[in-house]
């Protein structure tokens, strides 16, 4: 009997692929992404796709008439045209939950790096400048006892907030929906308006998903409301910050610094960041630990197995597609 044809768009762990090969006819991509045309061509005869940040748009979906499931190996899904999947009865899934702590850890890594000038001073040291550190050299910002503002208080935002207790911080947050008082108390965070969050935060961490309504939510006007001593950290998604405006604010020292893991148009990020010392940069590593990436791949596989077995996938994004399918 012919096995179901699936495409894994990027190289994943051997144990995940060998498990898949027992059950499916698996085609797997390389470490680098396919070009748009290549991805479309390879997806055209597949029944399910396991994807990693690849753009799944109308043109691709139209060229793959047998497709039944698109399973993202990540939690954010702004790379997938969900409405187009739903229209075609294709189930779309993601991997929430398994990467919360790892992504929260990365938020802290960049927050601390920007605050204490870790990446800047490493460049200085490697360049051979360390002849004796001036008493007033490389002074950073204290994290302990400062105010941490969190924009987006979902699972990752809450994991970031919990970690702040160890730094004796005052934690404030803003979210579309206010948390229950019991949850606020558990994470030790106080709800404030968006404007208060901007004005009061010493460190502002973005932990919300990208959606068109969040595009450039942090632009020149919002940056102007922040303290001159503030540091902004983005481990959420590119496009939430207007990167051009952020570069200007950092260059003019209208805010003190930034820690960034995500960028507009990544991997073609704004090269203006490279000219600045007051920003710690990482190449979208939020969930990049071995254990977490393995958990993400496995969860994506569980989603795909369920979808192909006619069961509701555990992390279904478009429940409308599922309902339509059941009504047929
Ligand atoms: C996600 O899962 O959306 C993360 O950005 C991947 O690191």
Q: Within the CATH hierarchy, at the fold level, what is the topology of the largest domain?
A: Rossmann fold
**Global geometry:** globular
The set of bound ligands, ions and cofactors reads: (2R)-2,3-dihydroxypropanoic acid
Which structural class matches the secondary elements? Answer: alpha/beta
How many β-strands, per DSSP? 12
Q: Determine the number of helices (DSSP H or I, runs of at least 4 residues).
A: 13
The name of the CATH superfamily of the largest domain reads NAD(P)-binding Rossmann-like Domain
Keywords for this structure?
328 residues; five-stranded parallel beta sheet; Rossmann fold; alpha/beta; 36% helix; 12 strands; 13 helices
Structure write-up:
The protein has about 325 residues and is an alpha/beta fold. It folds into two domains: about 5-100 and about 290-325, Rossmann fold; about 100-280, Rossmann fold (3-Layer(aba) Sandwich), CATH 3.40.50.720. The chain has helices at about 15-20, 35-45, 60, 80-85, 100-115, 120-125, 155-165, 180-185, 195-200, 220-225, 245-250, 290-310, 320-325; strands at about 5-10, 25-30, 50, 70, 90-95, 145-150, 170-175, 190, 205, 230-235, 255-260, 280. A seven-stranded parallel β-sheet has the order 8-7-6-9-10-11-12, sandwiched between helices. Strand 9 (about 205), helix 10 (about 220-225) and strand 10 (about 230-235) form a beta-alpha-beta unit. It starts with a strand and ends with a helix. The mean pLDDT is about 95. The structure holds (2R)-2,3-dihydroxypropanoic acid. (2R)-2,3-dihydroxypropanoic acid binds near residues 75, 76, 284 and 287.
